[in-house]
Amino acid sequence: MQIKKVFAQGLFALLAGVSAAGSAQATVIDFESVVLTRDAAPFKYSFLSNEYGLTWGGDWGNRSWIATANVQYFPNAVAHSGKQFAYSNGSSDVKLSGNPFTLNSLWTRTLVGTYDLVATGYLNGIATQSKTFHINTTFQEINLNFVGIDTVWLETSIKTNTIYDDINISAVPEPEQGAMFMAGLAAIAFAAKRKARKTKAEIAG
Question: Could you give phi then psi for residue 180, rounded to 5 degrees?
């Protein structure tokens, strides 16, 4: 019983530590930190390329994503939170890629009209997950939960501008974290057995 008790206590502490480390890796990309370097008054913007540890691309390469605080000729285009957001440039479908990650959710809306948005997650060039959403001019959160992908394509049924904001992404734990977890379990088991032997020796003495 003593071994089980010590093992359970240690396992709980280890799991709590792993959980805290995992949650600390989650981030919400709100584009507020992007410096708008291009000025076409009153329109300021920047093309996204390698921000937030990701590669931002699409049909138009590194000009597929635009970060801004407003869209020229569309005064109703605003961010979901804060002041800045991103949108797809022209008729481009867009993608995000990088080290394996989990795409939890994002907020999106159209500039004009309603159409379908298809999100497809890939790992090593193979499509692993896909979901379709019907979007309009009102911001809505789309929950994706694409786990362990290295690329996601966001494609629309009508080739036009789509606004994105508050993209929730989590890093996939490195293999070393799994090894550390197993080593921690072994250490806990060893400590529990050692404590049990010591207790028996004290009783015997």
Answer: -65, -40
Please count the CA atoms within 13 angstroms of the CA of 134 that sit on its side-chain side.
Answer: 1
Class of domain 26-172: mainly beta
Q: What is d(CA 189, CA 7) in angstroms, rounded to the nearest whole number? A: 6
Q: Global pTM? A: 0.75
Question: Which structure tokens are listed for 181?
Answer: 């977890």
Residue 11: φ, ψ to 5°: -65, -40
Q: Give tens-digit pLDDT for 134-190.
A: 999 999 999 999 999 999 999 999 988 999 999 999 998 755 544 444 545 455 554
Residue 82 neighbours by CB under 8 Å, 6+ apart: 30, 31, 32
Question: Which string of DSSP letters, residue by residue, matches 79-115?
Answer: -SSSS-EEEE-TT--EEEEEEEEEEEEEEEEESSS-E
